[in-house]
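Regression check, glutathione case 214:
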Amino acid sequence: MVKLYYTPTSCGASSFISAFIAGINFECEAVDLATHITESGVNFYNINPKGNVPTIVLDDGIILNENIACLEYILDLSLQNKEGIKLGSDNNTSDRYILKQHLSFVATELHPIIGMFFNPSVNNDTYIRNFLLTIFDKKMKYLESYMIKDKKFIHGNSFTIIDAYLHIVLGWTGYVCIDLHKYQTALKYKEFIESIPEVKKAKNRMAFFPKTTI
Ligand SMILES: N[C@@H](CCC(=O)N[C@@H](CS)C(=O)NCC(=O)O)C(=O)O
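Current build output:
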């Protein structure tokens, strides 16, 4: 069975949420990201030498890592699943490349900049913090003006892997004392995604039945 390594508040949660919503079953195991030890006591570096989540181990032993790869893998499974919810556009369509563009923005522009504030020596240094906040502000202005605008979802008219990922990343602002009220469009988007019943159910599952996605 395909296995997902993740944690419930990290970016790895977006793979869990996506799989849950698409009705795809993965075996799951949480990783302590401070010690890099999995819940069953294995050194996570022996599974993924980068030591980061999400990490998906396929049935043939191939290791998938990086949010973009893991989430697109789940998207493709959702497209093959005729009964379930589709989490994005079909392959080889211009729409799919637009989806990839937005997904890449979250993974390579927004995630790393917010992620840096988790480092106490960055967040406690006023000069560095203010410098990073100006970069963060630029990314947020792009996100609000061009990606969210007045839409409910980032891509198309329904929930996609981008929403699964982006609302988690935006949620980190609360942990690093960045006030999202300055970004009302992004705040409302995040609150809307969090309010979707399937998203709530996925989070509930992570809390109470964290070892499989369905
Ligand atoms: N480049 C990776 C970054 C993933 C990442 O930053 N994961 C974090 C959690 S949100 C992590 O596992 N951190 C622990 C570590 O890197 O040791 C991706 O896009 O997937």
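Comparison notes: The chain is about 50% helix and 10% strand. The radius of gyration is 17 Å. No diff flagged against the previous build.
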